[in-house]
Design goal:
By secondary structure, this protein is mostly helical. It is built from two helices and no strands.
């Protein structure tokens, strides 16, 4: 009879160990899942920020490309010659203020 008790006692002990280990595994997995969801949310927010930054940089790139085209035009060269160098066309009349 004592062997039956020992056998039953061992089975109960083994079951308790099994449930303790299973509970521990479930708790660890739950914590890991929560951490992964938090990281996922952080990455999603960072993705939105980076997409907005990308759009802004693409707009800036487009503006720079348009400005580069404008710099190569005669209109730009005339504007610079008039504003910085004070040059005028032959048929233009210059008005100056008296000091």
């Amino acid at each position: 009879m004592s062997r039956k008790r020992n056998s039953r006692s061992r089975k109960r002990t083994n079951r308790v160990y099994f449930f303790v280990i299973a509970a521990f595994v479930v708790i660890v997995m739950t914590v890991q899942i929560v951490n992964l969801y938090q990281k996922n949310a952080a990455y999603a927010a960072e993705e939105i920020v980076l997409k907005n930054e990308l759009e802004a940089q693409q707009e800036k790139q487009e503006e720079l490309a348009n400005y580069e085209k404008y710099i190569q035009t005669d209109e730009y060269k005339e504007n610079i010659a008039q504003s910085k160098l004070g040059l005028v066309h032959e048929n233009e009349i210059i008005f100056r203020e008296n000091e």
